[in-house]
Amino acid sequence: MATSRELEWTTTGKEVVDAFADYVKGRTFLITGPSIGGIGEETAYALSLAQPTALFLAGRNISKVQPLIDRIHATNPSIAVHFIQLALDDIQSVRRAAAAILALNVPLDVIINNAGIMFCPFALTPQGIESQFGTNHIGHFLLTNLLLPAMRQGGRIVNVSSSGHFFSGIRFTDPNFTKGYDFVDAYGQSKTANILHALSLAERLRDRNIKAYSVHPGSISTGLQVHITPETVAPAIARAKETWPREFVATSLERERKTLEQGCSTTLVAALDPALDQHNGAFLYDCQLANHLVADHAKKLEDAERLWKLSEELVNGTFTP
After folding, report:
1. Which are the contacts of 236, defined by CB distance < 8 A and separation ≥ 6?
2. Which one, of 39, 34, 81, lies nearest residue 60 by Cα?
3. What global pTM score does this model have?
4. CB hemisphere CA count around 208 (13 angstroms)
5. pLDDT score recorded for residue 279
6. N or C: which end of the chain has fewer CB within 10 A?
7. Alpha carbons 120 and 117: distance in angstroms, whole number
8. What is the pLDDT of residue 1?
9. What separation in angstroms does the CA of 16 have from each of 2, 29, 261?
């Protein structure tokens, strides 16, 4: 049994933390995208209930994170909570954020790459990368690599992906959609990248005993859907019903949406459950292993390696963890 069968789609983050409280107490966690009204907020708050040593909350604006910091300190004022200014779509901002974290000289136990954007109009990052790929993958790729020197052995990295990875594999010859933009494919490419990135990390960090996982949190109403209207989402839903596994269609599109408290639970299982040590690189959904729900284009180590090389080129750096 990889995870407790008592954990399933209605499980809340608090219930996961209660189950694995010993793996929270005294540890340090970094969460990207902790703005109020999202699963990052609930991920951080649930962790705060079990006595972590420190929480690093990395987001674009302090105004969107301060209410979470106040909420955490109202429950437990002893937790060290650090806001880190981070714009994932800007490589220079990512480098500044990593430097700020490293300067505090606090060992990291878990990195949760949670932040993301979805179905956006075409835009390029300051470095000329398609915005969904740049924000959802490239920013996290660089941040994670820059922070690896601070990670303890036995640590974990969790990439929040999506069932939407089925929409597209990696467009290795045209990741920027220079021949015509499709916002659904662009989102799918970025979510496939999250899965392949976790596979690469699992392989490359094996000797350091650092594990990596990717998750689909489920269908949840959050600020992520800011660009979604009935008109824009209808074609995507039609495509999903034709191409996704039936299990994903039934649970992501036809089942009632998860609450924010439920939406963070699979991320927390990936971050905390010791039973997953034997499943390095795995994909999780509804608090359980779900490798059978990964698209073929997100499974191959050779594609993960190609993505790693492409990502290095885009950030102008070489990383050998």
Report:
1. 119, 167, 184
2. 34
3. 0.96
4. 20
5. 98
6. N
7. 7
8. 43
9. 14, 15, 10
Tell me the per-residue pLDDT of 133-145, one tens digit each, with 9 for 90 and over. Answer: 999 999 999 999 9
**What SS3 string covers the chain?**
CCCCCCCCCCCCHHHHHHHCHHHCCCCEEEEECCCCCCHHHHHHHHHHCCCCCEEEEEECCHHHCHHHHHHHHHHCCCCEEEEEECCCCCHHHHHHHHHHHHHCCCCEEEEEECCCCCCCCCCECCCCCEHHHHHHHHHHHHHHHHHHHHEEEEEEEEEECCHHHHHCCCCCCCCCCCCCCCHHHHHHHHHHHHHHHHHHHHHHCHHHCCEEEEEECCCECCHHHHHCCHHHHHHHHHHHHHHCCHHHHHHHHHCCCECHHHHCHHHHHHHHCHHHHHHCCCEEECCEECHHHCCHHHCCHHHHHHHHHHHHHHHCCCCCC
Q: How far is it, in rounded angstroms, from Cα 72 to Cα 51?
A: 11
All structural domains of the chain with their residue ranges: 13-228+258-315
**pLDDT of 54:** 98
274: which 2 tokens? 């010791």
In this structure, the chain runs to a length of: 321
Low-confidence ranges of the chain (pLDDT < 70): 1-5, 222-228
| Cβ 57 vs Cβ 83: under 8 Å | yes
With tokens 């949760």, the residue in question is 112
What was the pLDDT predicted at 254?
85
The tokens 């915005």 sit on which residue?
A: 131
Cα separation of 77 and 11, whole Å?
27
Determine the Cα–Cα distance for residues 118 and 226; give it in Å rounded to an integer.
Answer: 8
Instruction: Give the pLDDT confidence score for residue 14 in this predicted structure.
Output: 98
Q: Tokens 């489920």 — which residue?
A: 218
CB-based contacts of 184, cutoff 8 Å, min separation 6: 119, 164, 167, 168, 235, 236, 239
- Which amino acid would we find at residue 65? V
Q: Find out if CATH 3.40.50.720 is the number for domain 13-228+258-315.
A: yes
